[in-house]
Amino acid sequence: MRQTDYVILGLLSEKPLSGYEIKKLIDIRFRFFWSESYGQIFPSLKRLNADGLIEYYIENIGGRNQKKYSVKKKGLDALRQWLMLPVEKESIRIELLLKMYFSNYTDNETMINHILKFETSHKQDMMLLNMFNSELLKLQEDESHEAILKVIDFGLKVNKAYVDWARETIKFLEGRDIK
Amino acid sequence: MRQTDYVILGLLSEKPLSGYEIKKLIDIRFRFFWSESYGQIFPSLKRLNADGLIEYYIENIGGRNQKKYSVKKKGLDALRQWLMLPVEKESIRIELLLKMYFSNYTDNETMINHILKFETSHKQDMMLLNMFNSELLKLQEDESHEAILKVIDFGLKVNKAYVDWARETIKFLEGRDIK
DNA sequence: TGGCTCATGTAATCTGTTACATGATTCT
DNA sequence: AGAATCATGTAACAGATTACATGAGCCA
User: Fold this and answer.
1) What is the mean pLDDT of residues B26-55?
2) Sign (positive/negative) of CA torsion A42, A48, A51, A52?
3) Threshold 0.85, pTM exceeds
4) Any alpha helices (H) in chain B, and if so which ranges?
5) How far is it, in rounded angstroms, from Cα A10 to Cα A90?
6) Among the listed residues A118, A146, A33, the one whose alpha carbon sits nearest the alpha carbon of residue B169
7) pLDDT tens profile A88-102
8) Chain A hits for B110, Cβ within 8 Å
9) Which of A89, A122, A165, B106 pairs as cysteine with A83 (C-beta 3.0–4.6 A)?
């Protein structure tokens, strides 16, 4: 059992999904802290099914076939076990900071452009997070989306830090440019 | 040429280093945004040397042999080229957020403990960053450590966001506990 | 003397991405 | 008709970690 397996079990615990839908969900909801490729998702579904943690039925929506997977008791048990296990150290790789660190070997303009792209991309993320946030608040089902709201809040805080840093650093580099 | 190669070229551009020293530097200075294992570093040094981007001499310090690598012109050129290339999208995997997202399948106490560990670890990171920061300021060589200070500032901002979130979320979960 | 850190390195394994194949449906 | 999206899947490759091997000097 690897991390991909648990992400899938977790998502299926909400409602039955196809591999394709799982990929889309991860890309949208988890974009700022997780990612998976088809090359991970489909083999994982195959294994989980073979091991009796999930099952599927073929659903036909508008003449289109989908393999809808749902989680079985054994799968939920595995999910619960995993949730109690110590959290793996997060893995983070930010090439931009590497380039910033060694930036005395390039010019200000290059670095400013790199950071501008970074800023734009994370402003985008913040917008998406804000949208997702207000959608959840609208539902107001009293049913605990609280945990999810906390995850969104994490994203907003961290992305704000990113964007703030980018702004300040661009200003700093521009200021140095004039001299 | 992969990312590991450029990290090494960048570090060697400051001063000659052994593979062992490179590993230590990355673990300490880059800990909050990068990591490399020996299984990446040593083969990379071998390749870079074979391709004429770096060279080495054996240094004997206190009877202990070290292969000190230094970067050659071809290596610096490669570094400069890479700095101008578009920045790779950062890759981030935070298992804690996955567990938070699915936390309705476990109890508050478990989650609080997970988050406490996270908080402690990132407070530690902040302390290290602050130390590194004041050391650099002391040097005050006027020689531009500015870029490095900016990298540290990034770390401080992001880790502060982590710790703030952790504090708030623990409070929230504890509050829910009493009810 | 035994354990720790220094120091270099590799092989096996695992993880993850990319590119491709296939085919149906929907949209323009 | 042709392009885009839906949908499932795999093989090849690339990237990265882990565990191990080896050996020397340092410290208690």
Assistant:
1) 97
2) negative
3) yes
4) 3-12, 19-29, 38-50, 73-84, 95-101, 108-139, 146-178
5) 19
6) A146
7) 999 999 999 999 999
8) 83-84
9) B106
